[in-house]
Amino acid sequence: MGLQPMSHRQDADATNDDQSMHPSRDQLNSGVLSPSEPRFVRVVIDRAIHRELDYAVPETLAERVSVGSRLRVPFRDKSALATVLAVLDQSDAKGIRPIEAIVGEAPVLSEQLLELAKWMSAYYCCSIETVIRSLLPQVVRRAEMGWKKQLFVQPTGKIESEEIEKLRRRAPRQAELLQAIAQLEKPVRAAELLRQTSLDNQTLRALVKRGLAELREEAVARDPHGDEQFLATTSLAVNPEQEFALQEIMSALGAPDNARPILLHGVTGSGKTEIYLQAIRSALELGRNAIVLVPEISLTPQTVERFKGRFSETPDGVAVLHSHLSEGERHDEWHKIQSGRARIVIGARSAVFAPLKNLGLIVVDEEHETTYKQEEAPRYHARDVAVMRAKIEKCVIVLGSATPSLESYHNAKRGKYGLVTLTQRVDQCQMPLMRIVDLRQERRKQKAAAILSEKLRSAIADRLEKREQTILFLNRRGFSTSLLCSNCGEARDCPNCSVALTFHRHVARLNCHLCGHTAAVPKKCPACGQDALIYSGFGTEKVELTVAHLFPTAVVRRMDADSMTRKEAYRETLRSFRGGKIDILVGTQMIAKGLHFPNVTLVGIINADLSLHLPDFRAGERTFQLLTQVAGRAGRGDTPGEVFVQTYTPFSPSIQFARHHDFAGYFEQELEFRERCDFPPFKHAILITVRSPHETRAKFSAETLTRRLKETLGSEFILGDATPAPLEKLQGQFRFHILMRGQAIMRLSRLVRETLDKLPFPEDVTVAIDVDPYQLL
Ligand SMILES: [Zn+2]
Ligand SMILES: [Zn+2]
User: Fold this and answer.
1) DSSP class of residue 330?
2) How much distance in Å is there from the Cα of 489 to the middle of ligand 1?
3) Ligand 2 centre and the CA of 627: distance in Å?
4) DSSP designation for 124
5) Burial of 720 by CB count in 10 Å (0-12 exposed, 13-18 middle, 19+ buried)?
6) Which ligand approaches the C-alpha of residue 497 most closely?
7) Which residues contact 103 (CB under 8 A, 6 or more apart)?
8) 68 and 82 in contact (C-beta within 8 Å)?
9) Residues 455 and 449: beta-carbon distance below 8 Å
10) Residues with CB under 5 A from ligand 2 (ion)
């Protein structure tokens, strides 16, 4: 990501700084259609030149051009693809040239989505071109791909049986095919008919030539779930808490103009999805459409099935958007939504931009999930963008979670969001019993860093006896996490990044988890030549091996990014685990989210401290969320669950509050800490990362930028010094951080951008701006 000077952009109104994300008047105006046919258009081209350009519209094209249209325009001595931001009666730009062509059939961006794009550009401090690239899938922007066409066959007119008999003498095969065609009630795919009759294309062509049959090309959708069967389901009975939540959503649907976002805080297993499904049904009945965002990792076949099954009366009506679609599938799903055939969209982060019209409801499930934040420009947070979209489209938004983010919970507490709480699990199951295991004591007992404490070990043995299942969770892959020479102290670090290489036993290599660098495992220390290498630290691979060694009769499987390189492997492992064919499942966060296994009665968290000691103000919050989510995997059937949390810091608040399932208590003390330290949600933050392959240049640029920012930003903003990032070196680049905090985020964004615009940087220095950052390493 390079610098993004945007000198010609219209900025957000400076007086309109606030946290409630109102668009400014300026942003609203350009969305208004001119009453007469457009004579000029203002566009941004797809290439980031950070300028809006005016073009003339030839009279012959005027009728088909509107805000959101895609165009081909001349740019310098080439042509470029562009998006219409506004239509104008006049333009005072000099040397105006006419547009070349209209790309695609209809405008691809609604006025509301354009308005959202402009807000994102101002809020996230990035160019509108960059935002539009995120808003429109490439296959839509380029408009080079069309629908998949297939040939359908039908009879030309009524076919008399004498005709078939007459043909039978001269051409028996044609007669046979004609007979099949005569019986068709509607056109069928030619290939399908030929397959059924075991006849060939030549025979069909002959009939067409005789004028007895007709071939027609029709578009068919490449449906990513087209070959799956969905069992129709109906609404489940709801408990009083769910009923109350539904009432709240329903009354918001009745008066969406001034409805607040609703935070649905429900413990794991409290039936939030059923609420979503019934709320969507109500929205549809009111003639409005719905988007459901789920974290990519939760977008499993089961999730899709639940939605497709519930709305099975229109199998086409549910579109699915995620990153694993082929370009063809993405094209078809997108246009299915755009044309109004799909009325429900379920998808990961970018589905927040789904081109649904007449939006009535947006659901953001697991709203606390950090994967909603995009880590490349535009660095947007899909939940926050969804809240803004709901405001623009005047629709209802529901944010659901068992462990709401501090930001959303804070908004609910101060009345900006409505709060609905679900305290009961639908199956009347009890919350699992959380047991804390002090690894310091364990270390003294076992005289070494333990992977499994004695208590956890005997709990596993007990489950194996009862034929119940166990999940062991560790958020670190690989076998050994560091390799050190005991003679000279030399550590094997990645040459490109400031982290240790991880030893992967299965492939017998050292890997860097950040840049993918891989190296052979040295027999002797490369520095001093001594045979004194020590492996230490452990990851999931070692846990799997240890467990398999301790319980030789148990079936142990591992689920992490290393063992699940094929998509099928993931499904297969889940299927056999659900089917009871696996006793112990070891895994990373891949197994922490939203999976439902009734026979799991034990969850072991191997090391709860891993996320707790990161240099990140959200470390405690993430640990609390993770413990609660992982624990939610236990005891969802008839047997109550038990969770063992192994830790070296048993008294840290996130562990203690999670242990007692005390959300309110945790949030209270964490909010107090954040307020005292001026961290979100009390202040917004902007993190600038300056990086370069040359350490001195990165450092000098970061320091110069900090000086300029100090001159520009008023005392209402907190600005730290430029410091080496916690991850000093990444992929061969040296990295420096500048962190700013303040309340008026729109103003801060604008000042940062203006400062950057005026500052020339050396060519090999890259500056990235992250508004509301989630990644502080
Ligand atoms: Zn050595
Ligand atoms: Zn690396």
Assistant:
1) H
2) 6
3) 29
4) T
5) exposed
6) 2
7) 70, 71, 72, 81, 143
8) no
9) no
10) 494, 496-497, 512, 514-515, 517
Question: From the CA of 562, how far away is ligand 1's center (Å)?
Answer: 29
pTM: 0.83
Ligand 2 centroid, distance to 572 Cα (angstroms): 31
d(Cα 107, Cα 4) in Å, to the nearest integer? 27
Q: Which ligand is nearest to the CA of 499?
A: 2
**Residue type, position 646, single letter:** Q
Helix, strand or coil, per DSSP, at residue 281: helix
Distance in angstroms (rounded) separating the CA atoms of residues 287 and 126 = 36
* 477 CA distance to ligand 2 middle (Å): 15
Separation of CA 482 and ligand 2 centre (Å): 14
Q: How many residues does the chain have?
A: 777
CA 18, CA 749: separation in Å to the nearest integer? 12
Ligand 2 center from residue 58 Cα (angstroms): 54
Distance, CA of 92 to chain centre: 42
C-alpha 235/C-alpha 634 separation (Å) is 26
What is the per-residue pLDDT across 380-427, written as a single tens digit (0 to 9) for each? 999 999 999 999 999 999 999 999 999 999 999 999 999 999 988 877
- The neighbour count for residue 751, using CB atoms within 10 Å, is 21
What is d(CA 239, CA 425) in angstroms, rounded to the nearest whole number? 10
Looking at the CA of 491, name the nearest ligand: 1
Ligand nearest to the CA of 501: 2
Q: How far is Cα 225 from Cα 667, in angstroms, rounded to an integer?
A: 40
Cα atoms found within 13 Å of the Cα of residue 618, Cβ hemisphere only: 19
Place of tokens 């333990």: 450
Count CB neighbours of 613 within 10 A: 12
- Dihedral sign of CA atoms 673, 678, 683, 685 in order: negative
Separation of alpha carbons 705 and 263, rounded Å = 39
Are 363 and 388 a contacting pair, CB within 8 Å?
no
Q: How far is the CA of 507 from the centre of ligand 1 (A)?
A: 24
Please give the radius of gyration of the chain, using alpha carbons only, rounded to the nearest integer: 30
C-alpha 500 – ligand 1 centre gap (Å): 15
Structure confidence by residue, pLDDT tens digits, 94-139 = 889 999 999 887 788 999 999 999 999 999 999 999 999 899 988 8
> Measured in angstroms, how far is the CA atom of residue 524 from the centroid of ligand 1?
8
Nearest ligand to residue 529 Cα: 1
Count of CA atoms in the C-beta half-sphere (13 A) of 263: 25
- Calculate the CA 55 to chain-centre distance: 36
Q: From the CA of 531, how far away is ligand 1's center (Å)?
A: 8
133 C-alpha vs ligand 2 centroid, how far in Å? Answer: 29
In angstroms, the CA 238 to CA 253 distance is: 19
- Alpha helices, DSSP H only, in 394-522? 406-413, 439-446, 454-466
**767 and 690 in contact (C-beta within 8 Å)?**
yes
Helix ranges (DSSP H) in 394-453: 406-413, 439-446
C-beta neighbour count of 245 within 10 angstroms: 29
Ligand 2 mean position, distance from CA 732 (Å): 8
Burial grade of 527 (CB within 10 A; 0-12, 13-18, 19 or more): middle
Q: What is the pLDDT of residues 528-558, one digit of tens each?
A: 998 888 888 889 999 999 999 999 999 999 9
Ligand 1: centre distance to CA 613 (Å): 29
Whole-angstrom distance, CA of residue 140 vs CA of residue 108: 8
